[in-house]
Amino acid sequence: MDALGVCIFGKDFDSLNGNLEGPIEAYNYVLHNSITPLLMMFPSLVKLPLPRYLELKRKMKYFDSYCWDIINQAKKERDSNPTDQKPNLVSLLVNNDLEDNVVRDNIGVFFLAGHETTAATLNWAIYLLANYPQVTQKLRQEFIQKTQNFSVPLTFEDLKDMNYLDWFVKENMRFYPTVSVLTERWTSSDLVINDWFLPKHTSVSINIVSMLKDKSIWGDPEVFDPERWNPTRLTKEQRECNLPFSYGPRICIGMNFSLVEQKVFLYCLLKKFSSVKLAPGCVCEVVKSSIVHSPDVSKL
Fold first, then answer.
1. What is the pLDDT of residues 78-95, one digit of tens each?
2. Which residues pair with 288 in a beta bridge?
């Protein structure tokens, strides 16, 4: 969350030191209380004057107001000093003359992609590193080779050149997809797909898990194997079934941010620790939130 605050707003939220109030608390409350089965089926319920819904609207208003304050501040800084562009997302979007509503909506998307889903993905990565020490050592060895035994700073070009790191990240998202279903769409007309008739206005969504665990596609989907992503082994069908960030014009705008965040985290983790181990007698407990499933790393 702190990295997200710096990259989006140019502000360190200091959440690692326990500062979880203000926009962070409001965002987390909205995220975990607005995406519920009941509200998804009956969204108009939020209009009822019930305490939980009144609190939800209050938190939404607070977070929205915070975002608008940041946007307005970025616009003032741009107007007062056009040549001094701050290195954060809000300033970048504002300086490109996008509509204010577009800037606000993109902030929300980056919060979701850069925090909740990425955090869950990294929790699974830690769990896998602990269960597959040989993979951990291969990954760490690649870091050592690229940075001369961690003696030189890691660069963005280094990240792009680390094949095994890229394979590990992709296999982690395949093996433990944090989001199981892509956002639903509604058919605009009657359709027939593979002999299945879909009437107009049918709700359609893609079950990612079923594709990533399909034996006819992957052969051994229950085996964790980062090297399956080696281009010499990867099939066209496997590549097309890999949709952790969706696909096409509606692909997640925070995809590249999330991928870089994951890779930098793994580098920092294995720079500091030569191995990752589970606590004796540890049993992985899955924490279910409104949109993702994640292991409870506090019990690992």
1. 888 877 767 787 888 888
2. 293
Cβ proximity of 7 and 257 under 8 Å: yes
Joined tokens for residue 227: 């090297």
Task: Assess whether 158 and 294 both reside in one domain.
Answer: yes
Is 252 marked within a binding site? yes
- What does the alpha-carbon distance between residue 258 and residue 147 come to, in Å, rounded to a whole number? 22
Burial of 63 (0-12, 13-18, 19+ CB in 10 A): buried
123 shares its domain with 83:
no
What is the value of pTM for the model shown?
0.81
Measure the CA–CA gap between 298 and 129, rounded to whole angstroms. Answer: 15
Identify whether 111 is part of a domain. Answer: no
Instruction: Give the number of C-alpha atoms closer than 13 A to the C-alpha of residue 79, restricted to the C-beta side.
Output: 6
Looking at every residue in the chain, the average pLDDT score rounds to 86
| Residue 175, both tokens | 């093996």
Residue 290 clears pLDDT 60, i.e. is over it? no
